[in-house]
Design brief:
With 187 residues, this protein is an all-alpha fold. The protein contains 6 helices and no strands. Helix 1 packs antiparallel against helix 5 (116-151). The radius of gyration is 24 Å and the shape is rod-shaped.
């Protein structure tokens, strides 16, 4: 009789230990997802700070492209003010498309391409875009691990018990997956 009691106690202890370890791993993954999102935020802030400088630097050269420059600033402001992952991804996709268009238009201005400040800003922005891409990839990797942990059995039991919610991926909108069309013809 005593052996049966010990077996029950050991089984309960193992189950409690498993529950605590599973809960803690879910919390750790949730924190990693949040940290990864903050890393994206850091790079996006850097990008938001660079864009007005780039627009100011090219304004004098690109007098005929005022609409494009205004759209870039408007998209930057929208992207900077959105909060959740889906809205941020949508706004960032639009901004990325407009920046691509701006860079394509800049190719049509030889004086602009030769300007050292513009070239430095463009290089900084390109470098920041690469960092953002890496941060997005890392974020999505963390989201995948976190969401998978919530879905697989038996950790899904703990995830449901403690109301863990899946995180959203940072996905590009369909229209931003295509290269922007730029018409460089002058009327």
């Amino acid at each position: 009789m005593m052996a049966a009691q010990w077996i029950v106690i050991v089984v309960i202890a193992v189950a409690l230990l498993w529950a605590v370890l599973t809960y803690n791993s879910l919390v750790r993954l949730k924190m990693r997802v949040q940290n990864a999102w903050k890393q994206i935020d850091v790079q996006l802030k850097r990008r938001y700070d660079l864009i007005p400088n780039l627009v100011e630097a090219v304004k004098g050269y690109m007098k005929h492209e005022r609409e494009t420059l205004e759209k870039v600033i408007e998209a930057r402001n929208r992207a900077a003010s959105t909060g959740n992952v889906r809205d941020k991804a949508r706004a960032e996709g639009e901004l990325t498309g407009l920046l691509g268009r701006l860079f394509a238009l800049m190719e049509n201005y030889p004086d602009l391409k030769a300007n050292e400040n513009v070239m430095e800003l463009q290089e900084e922005l390109t470098s920041t875009e690469n960092r953002i891409a890496f941060a997005r990839q890392f974020y999505n990797d963390m989201v995948m691990q976190y969401n998978t942990k919530q879905e697989v059995f038996p950790s899904s039991i703990i995830a449901r018990m403690f109301n863990f919610k899946p995180a959203d991926y940072f996905e590009a909108e369909e229209e931003t997956k295509q290269a922007p069309r730029v018409d460089l013809k002058y009327s």
